[in-house]
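Following up on my earlier thread - several people asked me to post the actual chain instead of describing it. Fair enough. Here it is, all 136 residues.
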Amino acid sequence: MPDNYFARYLPFLIHILLAGGIATAIVLLSWLLGQRKPTRAKLSPYECGMTPVGDSRERFSVKFYLVAMLFILFDVEAVFIYPWAISLRRFTENHEGHFGLWEMLVYIGIFLVGFFYIWKKGVLDWGAASMKREKF
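Reply from S.P.:
Thanks for posting it. Predicted structure:
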């Protein structure tokens, strides 16, 4: 072990300080040298190229949040499938391939049951007709 334990972290500290210094310098230079010519068009709110209509504190539909949570849920499912796919070769070499395959089929089956359930409930319908007949 070296005499100074923290000497190993010196390159990392230099990297953090250098990156922070460069970021600070870029922001300060753009603030000092940048042109500021506020116009009515620049000061107006921008929403996808359209003139804003209504209140900015408008409530979102519950479906927006449900779809966001479902996206995260199915993303996590995909994250768990990648390590399984990598280790599948090891399962087949040890003659445990069938167990690993059935295990993943049960895992995917549970998620498919959930997917078909939310599909039948209409959570994934975003059309105008589905907005009129809220199921929640």
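The mean pLDDT is 79. That should answer part of your original question.
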